[in-house]
Design goal:
By secondary structure, the protein is of the alpha+beta class. It contains 13 helices and 20 strands. Strands 12, 15, 16, 17, 18, 19 and 20 form a 7-stranded mixed sheet that branches. Helix 5 packs parallel to helix 8, helix 5 crosses helix 10 and helix 7 packs across helix 10. The chain is elongated.
Length: about 425
């Protein structure tokens, strides 16, 4: 049985302690064995190649570890699972359930997670830890597949039958069954569900039986594993994944196999190093936020504007007729071939409440330089630029800035409402883009 699940948020600190210790705001207590393993991960490699999702820290004069801007699941060597949730939920007064719901909604915007079903996964996230949400999604996809029927193949087999079926092999019949006239040695076709796709699903079902800690997931996993009882689990998943068929008749398997690939592969886009290959599923929040904005922003754009991504066209300098230092904004708003606005997403919590001007609201000088360069490269020094941040209670209204030496460039800090999946555009900016 898997260990417990500990809920934390980005940038929380982890300390070693007893399981029943009371956690404080921004601090989570993990079992000592799990802490030792996590600490080992944080020190692997040199300063430039250490595990990116966790780092050494101090808290209250004692050794601690600090999570970084990654969210998802990580499992320590002792079986303790830690779900790391987006920090923005705290900034809008939400709890762990809301943060988990948001993370699932953001994951659905990644190309590799389109198999996360809309609505169902978010509802599960309101009442289950994140690892159990993913397991429930996998089990649900397998259940749907079983309802439609498992695919099988006809294979030729040779052997004795008590009724003639297929082709009688005369020589073998005379050699083996001359004294047994009630038997027929034949070559015949036999329908079997023993194929790569089903072996992989059976192996994944066995894996989640060992990992799941909720009664409903355990029960469904056992029921589905019984259905696959005649299919041996895949002994070498990588080999079976390599021979999967891509024909149209296998489209029903797509979602279940996508989950099986994650489960059997150790879950991990951000793999843990070391002797223990911990099952993990961790994502940089910058990438998740960009994917979330990219998915939902087109729905609110007026015609004929369109959203362009994967921009690679301009460079900052040339040297010996070769371009240097690519300028690659996250998003462009274009009308035909003309760029109307340049946008960059930033997973950072701004604070625009009174008294925050001393800290410049948490805005980065480097981001201003970056957008200034984008403005000259993509807008010829005149037009609209935007830094897009998650909306919070401390940042709800757009901010407008002008560049002292480029007065025709206007830079906006725009809030993106995570729950409504909508960018807050001021009226003046909407009119400029529509004009």
């Amino acid at each position: 049985m898997a260990g417990g699940v500990i809920s934390a948020h980005e940038f929380d600190r982890l300390i070693a302690g007893e399981a029943d210790a009371v956690a404080q705001a921004g601090v989570r207590v993990v079992p000592r064995a799990a802490f030792r393993w996590l600490e080992e991960q944080s020190f692997r490699g040199d300063a430039d190649a250490r595990t990116p999702w966790i780092r050494p820290a101090r808290w209250g004069g004692r050794q601690a570890l600090q999570l970084t801007s990654y969210a998802g699941i990580v499992q320590a060597a002792d079986g303790t699972r830690i779900e790391v949730l987006p920090k923005v939920a705290r900034a809008v007064g939400g709890g762990e359930a809301e943060a988990r719901w948001l993370l699932v909604a953001m994951l659905r915007c990644l190309p590799g997670f389109r198999h996360v079903r809309a609505g169902r996964a978010e509802q599960l996230a309101l009442r289950m830890p994140l690892p159990e949400v993913f397991i429930a999604e996998f089990l649900g996809s397998v259940r749907e597949l079983v309802k439609r029927g498992l695919r099988g193949d006809y294979r030729q087999r040779e052997g004795d039958l008590y009724a003639l079926c297929g082709k009688l092999l005369v020589n073998e019949q005379l050699r083996r069954n001359s004294m047994c006239p009630d038997r027929f040695f034949t070559a015949h076709d036999e329908f079997s569900s023993d194929r790569a796709e089903n072996r992989l699903l059976h192996a994944a079902l066995r894996r989640v039986l060992a990992q799941s800690s909720t009664r409903e997931n355990q029960q469904l996993a056992r029921e589905l594993a019984f259905v696959f009882g005649d299919v041996p689990p895949s002994p070498v998943p990588a080999t079976d994944f390599a021979v999967l068929r891509r024909d149209r008749g296998m489209t029903n398997y797509a979602d279940a196999l996508a989950w099986a690939r994650l489960i059997l592969g150790g879950w991990s886009p951000v793999p843990s190093s070391g002797a223990h290959a911990a099952p993990s599923l961790l994502f940089p929040m910058e990438a998740l936020f960009e994917a979330y904005v990219t998915r939902h922003l087109p729905a609110q754009l007026p015609a004929p504007l369109r959203l362009a991504t994967q921009v690679r066209g301009e460079h900052l300098a040339t040297h010996r007729q070769r371009p240097w230092f690519r300028l690659q904004p996250d998003l462009l708003l274009k009308e035909g071939q003309m760029v109307r606005m340049v946008l960059d997403t930033k997973w950072k919590l701004l604070d625009t409440r009174p008294g925050s001007t001393l800290n410049k609201y948490g805005l980065s000088e480097a981001d201003f330089y970056q957008l200034h360069a984008y403005g000259h490269a993509y807008l010829n020094g005149a037009g609209e630029l935007a830094l897009v941040y998650p909306m919070t209670d401390a940042f709800q209204a757009p901010l407008e800035f002008s560049f002292r030496h480029s007065p025709d460039l206007r830079l906006w800090a725009l809030p993106f409402c995570m729950k409504a999946a909508r960018l807050h555009l001021p009226d003046v900016l909407e009119s400029r883009l529509a004009g």
